[in-house]
Every structure is written in structure tokens, then in C-alpha cells.
Amino acid sequence: MTSFALAGLAVALVAGMILSNLASDSPDGLESAVLRTQCADQPEGEARDACLEEAAGDPVYDAAPLPDYEITWLSGALGVLVCFAIAAGLVALVRDGTRGARGGGAPPPSRVT
Amino acid sequence: MHIPDGFISGSTAVVTGVVSAGAVAYALKEGRETLEDRQIPLVGVTAAFVFAVQMINFPVGLGTSGHLVGGALASVLLGPWLAALVLAVVLLVQALAFADGGITALGANVLLMGVVAGVGGGYAFRSLARVLPRTSTGFLTAAGVTAWLSVVVASVVCSVLITFGGVFGAEEFGPVLASMVGLHALIGIGEAAITVAAVSAVLASRPDLVADSQLLPARGRAVTA
């Protein structure tokens, strides 16, 4: 792995595992817009929050291991590493496909300098 | 901007799912044909960084927070289509592992953040960077403006999806649009700041990895590895 990849991963891990603890828990832009429009006739507070939850509905898929990023540092570490692996893995896979097709069965050259 | 399952109708979920699947397939083809092997780590790092920074909601006032979308950032670093791929990976992991964004709304979320912000942002960035001075400042200005625009335009499309194509109904479109655009005009400022900072960091360390490095001054251009 290149030093660029290692440095980039380190930055992402610090952001996802540590800085993420500073995240604001105010509603995001979309939630806030719904609270201000669709749910505006509800009294502010619990009733309005319940209105938002009702609109969002029950999750269709409810087997997420860390819903809402509970255990922040673990969620950050897991998400960063899995996203890196899938994204880099996918493009490496399709690149390997091209080499096989064009290289006429020659062994692939070493990938990363 | 992650849409939960309940906000959009079944038909909207299907249509956005098909469009997003097509975009991801095209992105994989682009990756196969245009990406250089030495850029593969940057694809992984961009996905990891976008995931991590999406966890960090920043307050924008009005009792509202926002976080980086990252579509514009990914498109400046990797080009329009690979940005869609990166955001699709991030959104899939978020939905499956962290219940962030509904699984039936995955197509809609990829459409907003990967296709509108990512692909659209990528082409907007190229157009803008071509008319601005070919300097690092011009490049970063184009990146920042694109980042702001990408979030605001995505919020417009999101308003269409959740009203005309969702539970809030067409008659709510006007007020939803006004709220969404107003709030995302603020959130976009954070998007622009983070995008410019991250692009600067990559330009300072490995400018040769950046997809549109031909838009940079000569000394920052790609060199053959």
C-alpha cells in the first residue's frame, strides 16, 4: 500500500473515530425541512419529533449491526475500513478484468508503485 | 440528506433505484477504461474519507445541522462517474451497517448524492475550472463553488422526490423547496470549506493522482509514474 493511501486512511480514521464524537445532534437539513413544513402544525418538541418519525416510517431493513452509529469509535473504524476496501477492491477488480482481456493471459504487472 | 424508507413512494424507489444502478454500472465501465492503476488507492481513500466526514454533523444555526455530502469532492479528485461509484459504496455501507438512509431509498440517495452532486458536480467543476485562471486558486475556487452548488441542487431534487414522488404530496412542494434550499444554502458553505481543504491537501501531497490535473498549472500536472 502506498504511503498516500496509509496517510489518507489515517486521516479518515481520526475523523471517523475521534472527530465524529463532536458531531451536532440537531436534525439535519432534510429532517429540519420536514419539521418546518409537514410537521409545523404540531407543537414544538415531542409531538413534532413524533411527526417526523412517523413520516420516516419503520425501517424496512432492521438488521444493521450498529444502528445510528452507536459506539461511535467502532462505527467510525468499521465504516472507514469497509468503505476503503469495497471502493478500492471494486475498481481493482474491474481493472484486473481489462488486463486479463488485453494482456492475452500474461500475468498482471505489479499493481501499485 | 439521507432519505429514510417512509419519505418516498414505492414507484419513486423503483425508478431512482434503476437510474442509480445504471449510473453505478456506467461508473464501473469508466473505472475500467479511464482509471489508472496508481489512482486505485485514491478511490479507496476518498470513499473512506467521505464516510468518516459524513459522520461529523456541524451546526448551521436554526436548530439544524449538516454534514459533508462529498459528491463534489469525489468528482474533483476522481472525475464525475467515479464519484457516483464512491458515493454508492458509502451509502450502501451506511444503510446496511448503520441504518442511515432507508434501504428502499438507497437508489434515491445514490441519485441525490452520487449522481446529482457527484456526476453533475463533476461536469460543473470541469466547466467552471476551464473558464477560471489555470492556477491552484482557480482550481480550488471551482471546487468550492461546485461543492456549494452540488448541495443546493441536490436539495432541490430531494424536494421533488419527497413531494411529487413521496409522502408529502405535490401541494407541499413550494414550502418544502423553500426550506430545503434555504437550509442547504447554509450547509453548502460547510461543504465548500471541507471540499477546498481536502482538495488542497491532496494537491499538496499527490497532485499527480487528481483526475483533472490537466486543469492545474503545469508543475502540478500528472506525471507518468
Nutshell version of this structure?
The complex is a heterodimer of chains A (113) and B (225). Helices cover 58% and strands 0% of the residues of chain A. With 113 residues, chain A is an all-alpha fold.
Characterise this structure.
The complex is a heterodimer of chains A (113) and B (225). With 113 residues, chain A is an all-alpha fold. In chain A, 58% of the residues lie in helices and 0% in strands. In chain A, helix 1 packs antiparallel against helix 4 (72-102). With 225 residues, chain B is mainly α. Chain B has seven helices and two strands. Chain B has a two-stranded antiparallel ribbon with strand order 1-2. In chain B, strand 1 and strand 2 (64-66) form a beta hairpin. Chain B is globular, with a radius of gyration of 17 Å. The termini of chain B are far apart. The mean pLDDT of chain B is 95. The chains are: A mainly alpha (113), B mainly alpha (225).
